[in-house]
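User: I'm writing a short report section on ligand binding and want a predicted complex to refer to. Could you take this sequence and zinc ion and write out the structure as tokens? A short remark afterwards would be nice.
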Amino acid sequence: MYDFAKKQKEQKTALQKIRAGRIATKVRILAARDSCPLCKSFEGAYEFDDVPELPHEGCSHPDGCRCFYAPVLDRFGP
Ligand SMILES: [Zn+2]
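Assistant: Sure. The structure tokens for the complex follow:
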């Protein structure tokens, strides 16, 4: 069964890890391939201070929100 509180805790930890790693310049939200339109609409790269909380409360998929954070690594340039 989908455990919102557990998922929320996991996502928070994941975000903190990405932030603490100091190699990511931004954080990206990735949605599952079959996720609901709401989740899809949140897909993209965000500044750490602007990133929405996961999981999405308004997600309408029967399995719940399965979005996750991924680091954006800006390794281009000198
Ligand atoms: Zn979602």
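A remark for your report: Residues 4-73 form one domain. The mean pLDDT is 93.
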